[in-house]
Amino acid sequence: MNGLFIEVDMRLQQLYLWEAFPDGDMLIRQYPVSTAANGPGEQAGSHCTPRGRHRVAEKFGEGAPLGTAFKSRQPTGEIWTPELDAENPGRDWILTRILWLEGLEPGKNQGDGVDSHARYIYIHGTNEEHKLGTPASHGCIRMSNADVVELYKLAPVGTEVRIA
Predict the structure, then answer these.
(1) Quick one: which of 120, 112, 146, 139 has its CA closest to 32?
(2) Could you tell me if 10 and 29 are in contact, meaning their C-beta atoms sit under 8 angstroms apart?
(3) Of the candidates 30, 68, 95, 152, which lies 20 to 30 Å from 74 by C-alpha distance?
(4) pLDDT tens for residues 39-48?
(5) pTM score
(6) For residues 104 and 52, is the Cβ–Cβ distance under 8 A?
(7) How many CA atoms lie within 13 A of 15 on its CB side?
């Protein structure tokens, strides 16, 4: 089976983009990420990063400038700056690109109380690039803005995402 897949290693805070081949997988890219400060977990409302098999269900932000802020997957018209951040204390910034994940395992990350898609679990850009490599998110997988642009281009809708 040829095709791309993404692996997120929560212990190492790394995201790997692989290409699968019948005789073995080839690493295409590796990026530092931040998964949930609360650690792994699938329960709705837990602010944890869900484990297991997912897929990229939808993508948002094609062509948006670096630092574009999103709310409900729509650009707000804002470009993140330290000044804008200071005016919005505590805001969880979703920046640049969004890859919205959908769980593939019923009862684990799909369905009532554990549904990753219904929990709005994304791979997205962040203003807290200095925290990449450490758990710091509210459940999503945060990347640098430049890295999420690259991943967005490389990983089409349907790409499998394995989170462990």
Answers:
(1) 146
(2) no
(3) 30
(4) 999 999 999 9
(5) 0.96
(6) yes
(7) 25
For 73-91, how does the pLDDT look when each residue is reduced to its tens digit (9 = 90+)?
Answer: 999 999 999 999 999 999 9
Cβ count within 10 A of residue 3: 12
Amino acid at 81: T
User: 40, 42, 35: which is closest to 115 by C-alpha?
Assistant: 42
- Provide the pairing of β-strand 68-71 with 141-143: unpaired
Residues whose CB falls within 8 Å of the CB of residue 4, separated by 6 or more in sequence, listed in order:
17, 18, 19, 20, 28, 154, 155, 156, 159
Distance CA(21)–CA(132), nearest Å, equals: 30
Phi-psi region of 136 (alpha: psi -120 to 50; beta: other; left: phi over 0): alpha
DSSP run (H or E) holding 150? helix 145-154
Encoded tokens for 153: 């281009």
Sign of torsion over alpha carbons 78, 84, 87, 93: positive
CB of 146 closer than 8 Å to CB of 126: no
Contact 151, 2 (CB under 8 A): no
